[in-house]
Amino acid sequence: MSAHPERHFTVRRMDMQDIADALKIEHQSFPTPWSSAMFVLELSKAGSICLAACEDDVLIGYLIAARYAQVWHIMNVSVDPANRRGGVGSAMIHELFRIADGERTHYTLEVRTSNDGAIRMYEACGFREAGVRPGYYADNKEDALIMWRSTDEDFVPPNASNPTEWKGHR
Ligand SMILES: CC(C)(COP(=O)(O)OP(=O)(O)OC[C@H]1O[C@@H](n2cnc3c(N)ncnc32)[C@H](O)[C@@H]1OP(=O)(O)O)[C@@H](O)C(=O)NCCC(=O)NCCS
Question: Percentage of the chain with pLDDT > 90?
Answer without folding.
Answer: 81
